[in-house]
Amino acid sequence: MAKPISIEVWNPNGKYRVVSTKSMPGTRWIRLLTDNDCRLEICTEKKTILSVDDILALIGDHCHGVIGQLTEDWGEVLFSALKRAGGTAFSNMAVGYNNVDVEAANRNGIAIGNTPGVLTETTAELAASLSVAAARRIVEADQFMRAGLYDGWLPHLFVGNLLKGQTVGVIGAGRIGSAYARMMIEGFKMNLIYFDLYQSTRLEKFVTAYGQFLKANGEQPVTWKRASSMEEVLREADVISLHPVLDKTTYHLINPERLAMMKKEAVLVNASRGPVIDEVALVEHLKANPMFRVGLDVFEDEPYMKPGLAKMKNAVVVPHIASASKWTREGMATLAALNVLGKIKGYPVWGNPNAVEPFLDENAVPPPACPSIVNSKQLGLPSSKL
User: Fold this and answer.
1) Does residue 320 have an active-site annotation?
2) What 3-state class would DSSP assign to 111?
């Protein structure tokens, strides 16, 4: 017999049973579900990552929808179980859904929700923070200070990289990549080189206008260039931030050959997906090039780091916290809950999943729509006309 899963129950007499595999920030998402006749069961197990068997026990034989996490393995086993339990919706509390077998969900008629549109600025801020921390060796210096090793100012003590006037390179100039680029350009007056399959006209116009503003005020204008290849960015940029999607074409996008193309004192930042970097190769590159620095929020085999990475003083490593601002995490919880609630209620799918402000206004009733269902077309779900 399977071990019982500990849960916290809200609105026990609710008509619709919704399960959340984790406690999530804020309380608005709870109120939205319980005010709409949902019995909400929140898993309170101490495990960081639930197993498939754990989630099967949570689903049970009667469940209308599940709110889950990016760390969980959602495939045929779980989707078929959810279907048997009468469920029609699952939502990740994440913009990504690499943990989801969408085809399995389609076969079982399960709508898959995600939470885009609320992470853009927060993730870009973290990438910018990693860029500064790595360039100015802030973590090294902090550890040095805390260890009581500082006994006076020295000319060579923790000399790092100046950002002003240097070139920032962006691989993937979508919403997050563009937001990051604007922060580095406006904040540090860096020049831009970017690579993307699609032209980022809006970003180019921003850099052009900001360059004109600087020139009009007697300062050196910033410039932009759209590279013809990713390799061009790697060779020319002083700081490189990765913002691609993760698929077969971007797995180990940064490999030994491409690491060798970068400047010896370059800074490489990844707040996108861990497997876009060959982490073993990165460790060897960090060892061979002590002035090359890296800032990582994600890792190839999360929650683990490849051997040797933790020992690298020229690596700044943080535990997947790009979306970890209070506003963003509470917003993600709200959107995930509304995806499930909307499908249960038969609401249409919101027309623009990145325009989520109407769902996040705490002083207003959310629109009667699912904020973002990634397989809505495959399931033939109607779109909102609002």
Assistant:
1) yes
2) strand
User: From the centroid of its chain, how far is CA 45?
Assistant: 24
Residue type, 288: A
d(Cα 193, Cα 3) in Å, to the nearest integer?
A: 54
- Which tens digit of pLDDT belongs to each residue from 54-97? 999 999 999 999 999 999 999 999 999 999 999 999 999 999 89
Separation CA 353–CA 345 (nearest Å): 19
With a CB cutoff of 8 Å and minimum separation 6, the contacts of 184 are 128, 131, 163, 168, 190, 192, 239, 241
Cα separation, 101 vs 378, in Å, equals 13
Report the percentage of the chain scoring pLDDT > 70. Answer: 99
CA-CA distance, 180 to 53, in Å (whole number)? 39
Our answer to whether residue 252 is catalytic in this structure is no
The tokens of 193 are what? 């080189």
pLDDT level of residue 5 (50, 70, 90 thresholds): confident
Among residues 39, 273, 285, 329, the one annotated as catalytic is 273
Query: In this structure, are strands 239-242 and 167-171 parallel, antiparallel, or unpaired?
Result: parallel
DSSP 307: T
Q: Write the CB contacts of 94 (distance below 8 Å, at least 6 apart in sequence).
A: 69, 70, 114, 115, 323, 332
What pTM was computed for the model?
0.91
To which H or E segment does residue 342 belong? helix 326-345
Cα–Cα distance for residue pair 375/156, rounded to 1 Å? 55
CA–CA gap between residue 121 and residue 287 (Å, rounded): 33
Give 116-172 pLDDT, tens digit per residue.
Answer: 999 999 999 999 999 999 999 999 999 999 999 999 999 999 999 999 999 999 999
Strand extents, DSSP E, the chain: 7-10, 16-20, 38-43, 65-68, 89-92, 111-113, 167-171, 191-195, 224-226, 239-242, 267-270, 293-296, 315-317
Write out the DSSP string of 241-291. Answer: EE-PPPSTTTTT-B-HHHHHHS-TT-EEEE-S-GGGB-HHHHHHHHHH-TT
d(C-alpha 329, C-alpha 338), whole Å: 14
Q: How many CB atoms lie within 10 A of CB 37?
A: 14
b/e string for 124-162 if b means 16 or more Cβ within 10 A? bbbbbbbbbbbbbbbbbeeeeeeeeeeeeeeeeeeebbe
Q: Is the pLDDT of residue 213 over 60?
A: yes
**Up-side HSE of residue 284: CA atoms within 13 Å toward CB?**
11
Q: What's the alpha-carbon Rg for the chain, to the nearest Å?
A: 23
